[in-house]
Amino acid sequence: MPNSQKNFSKNNYDYDDFHDSEIEVELATPWQRSAAYIINLAFFLVCCYVGARLYIFHVGSQPKLMHIDYIALTICLLIPSIPFITAQWIMMSKTGQSFGKRLMKIKVINLDGRNPGFVGTVLIREILFHTIISTFSYLLIKIFNLNENSTEQICNYLITFVCFLMLFRTEANCRTFQDYLAKTIVIKK
């Protein structure tokens, strides 16, 4: 199998019982990982759409305002987004799968075959990774006096594109920046 990774410890709830056994796992394809990302993004955009509709409903019940109430808009966007994000974090922590990964039948594991848990899947792969990207964008903006919006967008698009290209590097087990940072790999379930 060209897309396989050898010498992984058995990923099981009773990890200590199987610590010495090794199994072969099949890597998730770049297309499965891309589809999972798109599915997660689509779910999040649906949450944003519901939030925007809540805001429009809220504004429709108020006297005509000439400006956008950013606090009300933020609250309306957070109402459907927080439960979605919380559910994603819980799923990622317990099974190594987001909604998209579950639908695509793939999951994240540590290099030793165990579930990375909350720290590996949420704190490192998501929060720390995005904090590093945001900090890098911020530093570029401040050091070179660049346009804030366009610089952030360019950095996000560039990182997304580079991560997409990294998915095709089979000699590196199709690992992206997040995988290297968290010492994880994405496999078929």
Helix content: 55-70%
Major sheet: arrangement of strands:
1-2
> Using only CA atoms, what is the Rg?
20 Å
- Mean model confidence by pLDDT: 88
State the separation between the terminal residues, measured CA to CA: 16 Å
Poorly predicted ranges: 8-19
Number of helices: 6
How many strands appear in the DSSP assignment? 4
| Cα shape | globular
Order of helices and strands: EEHHHEHHHE
Largest sheet descriptor: 2 strands, antiparallel
Reconstruct the topology from this structure:
Elements: E1 4-9, E2 22-26, H1 30-60, H2 70-95, H3 99-104, E3 106-110, H4 117-144, H5 148-166, H6 177-182, E4 184-188
Antiparallel strand pairs: 1-2, 3-4
3D structure, described in words:
This protein is 61% helix and 11% strand. It has helices at residues 30-60, 70-95, 99-104, 117-144, 148-166, 177-182; strands at residues 4-9, 22-26, 106-110, 184-188. It has a two-stranded antiparallel ribbon with strand order 1-2. Helix 1 runs antiparallel to helix 2 and helix 4 (117-144) crosses helix 5. It is globular, with a radius of gyration of 20 Å. The model is unreliable at 8-19 (pLDDT under 50).
Give a brief description.
The chain contains six helices and four strands. It is mainly α.
List keywords for this structure.
single chain, 189 residues, 6 helices
